[in-house]
Design goal:
Layout: E1 16-20, H1 24-39, E2 44-48, H2 54-59, E3 65-70, H3 71-83, E4 87-104, H4 106-110, H5 117-122, E5 136-140, H6 149-155, E6 160-164, H7 168-181, E7 187-191, H8 195-198, E8 201-203, H9 211-215, E9 226-233, H10 236-239, H11 241-249, H12 254-265, H13 271-281, H14 283-289
Parallel strand pairs: 1-2, 5-6
Antiparallel strand pairs: 3-9, 4-7, 4-8, 4-9
Helix pairs in contact: 1-12, 1-13
């Protein structure tokens, strides 16, 4: 069992509720943080929650900590939650988010002009399926991830329909199958993740992101990039100040997280085992979060 010395006593025996979302990286961040808090003596409870809806749960005090709020898809939602005075931004995780449409490298030869979005529009028929014909198909992430892809398609415009994968695993299983046969596919890819490590491809280049593009709700531009933040119920810092301090100190890089995700999603290792292994091999790192 992991043990840690710290300069404060556990302030409350009540469980600190950490949210679990639906992609491996977030689960790893959460299990690593939860392991650190358990080592410090805290009572930790993991609660399954929708990515965007978890912010409402923190506003009500039903949830305590969310380890990954991405600037790419949830900046507005986080800012709105913080503005209520019931949620706090506990700072950056160290990871920098990128989420965008992505095509395998082999499609660039088949659709001249890629990765420019206008070329993608001209090649829409190549990406069509019986479900979307004559429009192309964009394979999006689970609906709970947000992302405004339907609005972007309508307002550019671009001759595509969005079909949402049910899960993170289903999204990239379809990429794996298409890549093996060099079949047309354009889909949601994000970083930090193992996909940009394993596969050769290009992010689609949309008109540059501007705040006005999103403020106008047209979304006819690239997705924003930026930090991955930690967020919490405002009462966390008062009820468990030591835990809040540790969550604020949590830090991991894109490269390190990408390798952990690869171990789970590609190599087939158990997620809890991978998180526990990181804790064992990085004890000097996480003990500093508790001091």
């Amino acid at each position: 069992m992991l043990t840690a010395t710290h300069s404060y006593a556990v302030e409350s025996p009540d469980p600190i509720k950490l949210t679990l979302n639906d992609w491996s990286g977030q689960l790893l961040s959460t299990k690593i943080m939860g392991g650190v808090l358990k080592a410090a003596g805290y009572n930790v409870e993991y609660v399954q929650a929708d990515y965007l809806a978890q912010l409402t749960g923190m506003q009500s005090g039903d949830l305590d900590v969310a380890m990954e709020i991405w600037a790419t898809t949830a900046r507005d939602a986080l800012e709105a939650a913080v503005a209520t005075g019931k949620v706090v931004n506990l700072g950056e995780t160290g990871m920098v988010a990128k989420e965008e449409w992505w095509v395998p490298e082999y499609m660039i030869a088949k659709c001249p002009g890629l990765p420019d979005w206008k070329a993608l529009d001209k090649c829409a028929d190549q990406f069509s399926t019986p479900e979307t014909a004559p429009k192309g198909r964009y394979l999006g992430g689970p609906v709970t991830w947000g992302g405004y892809d339907e609005e972007r398609i309508a307002n550019l415009p671009i001759n595509f329909d969005v079909i949402h994968a049910g899960t993170d695993a289903a999204l990239y299983a379809e990429l794996d199958a298409a890549y093996a046969k060099e079949e047309p596919i354009v889909l949601w890819v994000y970083s930090p993740h193992w996909v940009p490590i394993k596969y050769k491809g290009e992010w689609i280049k949309f008109p540059p992101y501007t705040p006005d593009c999103y403020a106008s709700k047209s979304y006819a531009c690239a997705k924003p990039s930026g930090p991955v933040w930690k967020a919490a119920w405002v009462g966390l810092e008062k009820k468990w100040p030591g835990a809040a301090k540790a969550v604020k100190a949590f830090h991991i890089t894109n490269e390190d997280m990408g390798e952990l995700i690869k171990r789970v999603d590609v190599d087939g290792e158990n997620l809890d085992t991978v998180a526990a292994d990181w804790l064992k091999t990085h004890e000097d790192t996480w003990k500093q979060w508790l001091n």
